[in-house]
Write a structure and sequence with these properties.
Keywords: ATP-binding, Cell membrane, Membrane, Nucleotide-binding, Transport. The protein is of the alpha/beta class. The chain has 9 helices and 10 strands. The chain starts with a strand and ends with a helix. 40% of the residues are buried. The chain binds adenosine-5'-diphosphate. Adenosine-5'-diphosphate binds next to β2 and α1.
Length: 246
């Protein structure tokens, strides 16, 4: 078990978005989260990446690091949580005035203060890995959406996270560009990365996931192996959702 979460809740003012969620992330496995818009999927990922502060709940990592959001969390623990995961955003979120390469080196050099030459080499290797060896000196506006998202993946990998998080990584892409991004994610899954993916791509989810979790209204409604949840869902809300998107 890489991470165990118990009783995760998150409210924005009066609005309770995550309601007492228990979820575990297995080391080297892919957990996919599906569910209708507004069900809390992005908020859950953002809590994992320390972009949102949970209102309650306990995170326990395999290395013994534990965080109880029922209490005040120290700045140090907060940063430690943030460093554990790399996030790939729906809208890429690249710096527009930096090249692909600079987008990838920024975090390790500026935030992690790692040695510049080493970071440069690693970034070039990562960009080659996502198929962008020839494009590393181009700016985001010179790249297609699929290429920008592959830079986004290289950038998340560059901070050497233990956990990779993907928030609807292909939903902003034209259909013909989706495959190249999903291909990179599949490769990472095959390499044994621990990943949590929010996606509406059912076929992809079936191929890549070890477990699928279906959310609605801030709750986990159903979870299990992809074949079961996607092909033979037990819950009516899961069935209806899958019918709508398939
Ligand atoms: P999903 O990713 O499943 O579409 P989200 O996690 O983005 O769902 O959103 C869940 C709910 O939380 C929605 O009702 C959304 O409007 C609300 N929400 C998300 N972020 C904020 C925020 N920063 N402030 C207020 N409400 C928010």
């Amino acid at each position: 078990m890489y991470l165990s979460i118990k009783g995760l809740s998150k409210s924005f003012g009066e609005l309770e978005v995550l309601k007492d969620i228990d979820v575990s992330v297995e080391k080297g496995k892919v957990l996919t989260i599906m569910g209708p818009s507004g069900s809390g999927k992005t908020t859950l990922l953002r809590c994992l990446n320390a972009l949102e502060e949970p209102s309650g709940g306990v995170f326990t990592f395999e290395d013994g690091f534990s965080l109880d959001f029922g209490k005040k969390v120290s700045k140090q623990d907060w940063l430690r949580l943030r460093r554990k995961s790399g996030m790939v955003f729906q809208s890429y979120n690249l710096f527009p005035h930096k090249t692909a390469l600079e987008n990838v080196t920024e975090g390790p050099i500026i935030v992690q203060k790692r040695e510049k030459n080493q970071v440069q080499e690693m970034a070039e290797r990562l960009l080659a890995k996502v198929g962008l060896r020839d494009k590393m000196h181009l700016y985001p506006h010179q790249l297609s959406g699929g290429q920008q998202q592959r830079v986004g993946i290289a950038r998340a990998l560059a901070i050497e996270p233990e956990l990779m998080l993907f928030d609807e990584p292909t939903s902003a892409l034209d259909p013909e560009l989706i495959g190249e991004v999903l291909g990179v994610i599949k490769e990472l899954a095959n390499e044994g990365w621990t990943m949590v993916i929010v996606t509406h791509e059912v076929q992809f989810a079936e191929q890549v996931s070890d477990e699928v979790l279906f959310m609605d209204g801030g709750y986990i409604i159903e979870q299990g192996p992809p074949k079961q949840v996607l092909k033979e869902p037990k819950e009516q809300r899961t069935q209806q959702f899958l019918q709508r998107i398939l």
